Amino acid sequence: MTRRILTTLAAAGLASVGTLAAIPADAASAIQFRTIYVNSPGTDTRSNSSLNAEYATLKNTSTTTKTLTGVTVRDTSGHVYKFGTFKLAGGASVKLHTGKGTNTAVHRYWGSGNYIWNNSGDKAILKSSGGTTLDTCSWATVSSTTAC
To answer: What is d(CA 16, CA 92) in angstroms, rounded to the nearest whole number?
Structure first.
């Protein structure tokens, strides 16, 4: 969140040059994590409905459609989801669910039979098809969701 605030300040000419040097290259990415539901409600049964209650929300913060084909979402344990052919409209969001389901314009499915996000702390990493980090979201212990 800090880098987004600094980027906004920089665009308005309100941040110092020293502060700007500390902003990571991924600060300008139009595709960003918004919320990650790291702990699905109820008992962790590994049922598909429980797995799908764990998800990451990505938002296209620009006004133009962005192609996510080949973009990956990963965690620190090496779980990787790769978007197939997919475009996200300007201002739109998509939920990436852990379990199985039918992909739509607003819901994508990792297809995992195990939980991805660690309740005790983890990091979601969004990378371009070329491997450049576009956005990250980290958290320590949380009860259910984390805002990015």
So the answer is: 32
The reported pLDDT for the residue numbered 27 is 52
Backbone angles phi, psi at 6, to 5 degrees: -65, -40
Average pLDDT of the chain is 85
Q: Is residue 72 scored above 60 in pLDDT?
A: yes
Biggest CA-to-CA distance, the chain: 51
From the CB of residue 53, how many other CB atoms can be counted at a distance below 10 Å?
A: 17
Section 15-23 average pLDDT: 34
Domains of the chain and CATH, by start: 26-147 (2.60.40.1260)
Q: Count how many Cα atoms sit within 13 Å of the Cα of residue 16 in the half-sphere of its side chain.
A: 3
